[in-house]
Design a protein that fits this description.
single chain; Rossmann fold
Length: 232
């Protein structure tokens, strides 16, 4: 919306703009300014990202809410990606780094290290929790990073149009079908579940939370990440 200057929602689902799902000609078919999303680490992206100093926005979420979100995501997926265990088993897999696509801690640290090894690569780090707590500030930060002269009023309108509630409604009523079958029949699977800060408290026991803290803090000591775990 910031890029187009309009409040129009896109009908296409995000997978149609995910680099890992596109061939080279599919990327080049998108008119400038091109906006893509990805779950890939920097080292697996096209080398031109670094060579041409493509602007990158890295969005991060606190690991406990990430764990809960990932559990629900995998539980609702079609085989063979669907997870059939309980949440306690999943937290152990999450902490022992035995989850699909690798550990979250390694993913975060690798992005940080690879960006540091690519001097001049323009990057903006945003925490999901900051987007929820103060969306207007986050939107203005993105506009500034992209070099867009968006007014404060327009940024407020973007914030309203992109609230979790609005995005969930758009996903249900407007988005075109996924390019592949992702959700198992009868699960009601969706990318938009709750989107809350601190929902992990409804899932973790006190003992699980304390054990998670010990393991996570040991892995991420001196990493510099500053996550928010509860709503303000």
């Amino acid at each position: 919306m910031l890029n187009s200057g309009t409040l129009q929602h896109q009908k296409d689902v995000k997978e149609t703009r995910m680099i890992e799902f596109l061939y080279k000609d599919g990327i080049e078919a998108v008119p400038p300014r091109r906006i893509f999303n990805t779950h890939l680490p920097l080292r697996m992206l096209p080398k031109q990202v670094v060579e041409k100093k493509i602007k990158c926005i890295q969005i991060m979420r606190n690991p406990k809410d990430t764990c809960v979100s990932y559990f629900n995501h995998l539980r609702d997926m079609v085989a063979p990606y669907n997870y059939e265990g309980d949440f306690t088993e999943f937290t152990e897999a999450f902490m022992s780094e035995k989850i699909p696509f690798g550990p979250y801690s390694t993913y975060l640290q690798s992005w940080k290290d690879e960006v540091a090894a690519a001097p001049g690569l323009p990057t903006l780090d945003i925490y999901y929790e900051d987007m929820k707590i103060d969306p207007l500030r986050s939107i203005k930060d993105v506009a500034r990073f992209l070099g867009l002269a968006s007014t404060g009023k327009f940024c407020e309108e973007v914030g309203d149009a992109c609230s979790f509630k609005k995005m969930k409604k758009v996903d249900q009523e407007m988005k075109s079908g996924l390019p592949m079958k992702m959700w198992a029949d009868g699960t009601g699977g969706t990318f938009y579940r709750k989107g809350e800060i601190g929902d992990w408290k409804n899932w973790f026991t006190v003992a699980q939370s304390e054990r998670f803290d010990v393991i996570w803090n040991k892995k991420m000591k001196d990493s510099g990440f500053d996550f928010t775990y509860s709503p303000v």
